[in-house]
Amino acid sequence: MFVLFSLQRVEAMLSNDLIKTREICFYTLPVNQHAQAWLLLVGMDGLDVQKRDERHSIQVTYSLADYSLENLENALLSQGFHLDNSLFQKIHRALIYYCERVQMENLRAPEHLLKSRKIFVEIYQHHPHGDHDDTPVEWREYR
Questions:
Q1: Taking the complete model, does pTM exceed 0.70, yes or no?
Q2: DSSP SS3 for 8
Q3: How many CA atoms lie within 13 A of 93 on its CB side?
Q4: What was the pLDDT predicted at 4?
């Protein structure tokens, strides 16, 4: 079963899917890294940053068209910040990096043209391909 979406609905789904809310966790030492990172990132356009004092982290909300978690964290690392490198955080971070990269690659991929797909289907139907059923129609529809 195929579901048809209006162009506006597809664009809305894509734009909502591009908005990401992530948590960047810092190592406990040096003290107040998360507050300094918050001060550094709070003025950036298209980036919403909130401090989370109890977890030594900041929460960032961004559009994937503008930022990625990998780029944000690499920028923080280059400024001398120390991220939480527990096994859980490393795996979580790697999964997010991968998912965001794949999503951006999929968005950059060219759309398939409907006309070219129709041409391919017509050629396939007229070309002998082994999926032809020689059974008479009355036997195929017998129940």
A1: no
A2: helix
A3: 18
A4: 44
What is the C-alpha to C-alpha distance for residues 44 and 92, in angstroms, rounded to an integer? 25
- Rounded-to-10 torsion of CA 5, 9, 10, 14: -150
H or E element in which residue 52 lies: strand 47-52
Residue with token string 């401090």: 51
* Token pair for 30: 């040096």
Please tell me whether residue 56 adopts helix, strand or coil conformation.
coil
**Complete DSSP assignment for 69-115:** HHHHHHHHHHTT--B---HHHHHHHHHHHHHHHHHHHHHHSPPPPHH
Residues whose CB falls within 8 Å of the CB of residue 27, separated by 6 or more in sequence, listed in order? 33, 56, 82, 83, 84, 85
- The predicted structure's pLDDT at residue 115: 60
CB-based contacts of 14, cutoff 8 Å, min separation 6 = 107
- pLDDT tens per residue across span 97-117: 999 999 998 888 776 654 666
- Could you read off the pLDDT of 36-45 as tens digits, one per residue? 999 999 989 9
Would you say residue 74 has pLDDT above 60? yes
